[in-house]
Amino acid sequence: MSTMDIRQAGLADLDALSVLFDGYRQFYGRESDVPAAKKFLSDRIQHAESVVFIAHEGADPIGFVQLYPSFSSVSLGRIYILNDLFVNEAGRRKGVGAGLLAASIEFAKSAGAIRLALSTANTNTSAQALYETEGWERDDDFFYIYPTRNS
């Protein structure tokens, strides 16, 4: 039986990450474009614009999580936004998602963040169940709204 390993990803992980990231984008209805996924991730990592953790089962990449740094003006502190979390079919129901969440929480704490926040599609009930099982609570205090077209 293989063991799961979760660690912070770097540029050397781009090939594996790009395939996972492309799968994530396809889950949300986007067309497959591995080269664009690779460029996007490369830019984020090279410019320290995100922190990515990758999960492997043995030598096989099976999931990732991507965190974006931000700040809370009201709380006067750093926060991280857990923007992307994906586990491929081979990694599901094995604790990979929970492991990636735990790695994210530990990283945010070690970086001195005051909060780690995430959102997911209303229809992604399996992700919502994972978050709630792992102790995350739904925030009904804020109203989010987005423009309907580019301005």
Molecular structure report:
It contains 4 helices and 5 strands; from the N terminus they run E-H-H-E-E-E-H-E-H. The protein has a 5-stranded mixed sheet with strand order 1-2-3-4-5, with helices on both faces. The chain is of the alpha+beta class and 151 residues long. The radius of gyration is 16 Å and the shape is globular. 34% of the residues lie in helices and 26% in strands. 24% of the residues are buried. The N and C termini lie far apart (52 Å). The longest helix is centred in the last third of the chain and has 15 residues, at 96-110.
Helices, strands, pairings?
Blueprint lengths: L3 E5 L5 H14 L6 H13 L4 E7 L2 E13 L4 E11 L8 H15 L4 E4 L6 H9 L18
Parallel strand pairs: 4-5
Antiparallel strand pairs: 1-2, 2-3, 3-4
Derived from helix and strand composition plus strand pairing, the structural class reads alpha+beta
Give the spatial strand order of the biggest sheet. Answer: 1-2-3-4-5
Report the total helices: 4
Report low-confidence residues grouped into runs of 5 or more: none
Determine the mean pLDDT: 90
* Helix and strand run: EHHEEEHEH
Distance between the amino and carboxyl termini: 52 Å
Helix percentage range: 25-40%
What is the CA-based Rg, rounded?
16 Å
> How many runs of DSSP E, i.e. beta strands?
5
What characteristic shape results from the CA principal axes? Answer: globular
